[in-house]
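Same chain as my last thread, 287 residues:
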Amino acid sequence: MTALFALATSLLWGLADFGGGLLTRRIPALTVVAVSQTLAVLVLGTIVLATGAWTEAGPQLWYAVGAGVVGPAAMLAFYKALALGPMGVVSPLGSLGVVVPVSVGLLVGDRPGLLQLAGIAVAILGVVLAGGPELRGAPVQRQAVLLTLVAAFGFGSVMTLIAEASTTVTGLFLALFVQRVTNVLVGGGALYASVRRGGRALPEGGFAAVRAAVPALAFVGLADVAANGTYALAAQRGPVTVAAVLASLYPVVTALAARGILKERLRAVQAAGAGLALVGTVLLATG
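reply #2:
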C-alpha cells in the first residue's frame, strides 16, 4: 500500500505542477496559489464538517500549520527560479527536496534493504535526468540555483510535516484543511504585499479571465491537496524512505504530460531518466 499511495502522490503532484505551470503563463503566480488554495479550503471545509473531523483537533495540527507556512514560500521561490531559468536545470533540482524526508526516515529508524537502497539511488538519478538537465548552453544564475535549493528544502519539509500532522484518516482531513487555510493566509498576504509594491493581481482579462480559469484552478488546488493526503497515508503505512522517493517521481509525470498534451518532444536524456525512474520504482516496490 505504501508504494501504491506514493505513486498516486507522484501522479497527482505531476499533474498539479503541469496545470499550475500552464496557468501561470497567463495568470500571476501568487494569484494562482491564492485562488487554487481557497477553492481547496472550501472543499476540505465541507468534508471536515461532514465527517466531524474537527473533533480530532490536537497539538499535532501545528505540523499542518508549519506545512501551510512553508508551502507557499517554497512555491514562490520555485516560480522565481523558473523565471530566471534555465528550466532544464531548475525543474530537476526542485525534486531534490526528497532528501529531507529520506534523511528524517533514516534518523527515526528506517533501514531499507539492498534492493531498496539501489532503487532509491536509481529513482533519484532518473528524476534528475527526466528534467532534461542542460549541460551546455546559457550559464545558470547563482540566484536561480539558490532559490531552487530553498524551494526544494521547502517541498521536502512539507512532505515531512504533513506526514506528522495526523494518525487517522479523518484527522488527515482536518490537518489538510488547516494546512490549506494557512496557505491561503500566507499566499494572500504575499499577494497583497505584491500589489502594494505595484505588482499585478489579475491577468490581462481581469476577473473574467480568472472566472474562466476556475475549473483549472480548482483541479490544481484539489490535486495538490490529494497528493499531500496520499503521501501522508504512504508515509504512515511503510518506510518513509520508500514513500518519499516514490512520491518524488512527479517530474516524470509532468514531462510525460507535456509530451502527451503539449506535444513537447522528450530529449534523449529525459527518456533515459523516465526509464531509470521506472526501474527504481520496481526495485523499491519489490525490495
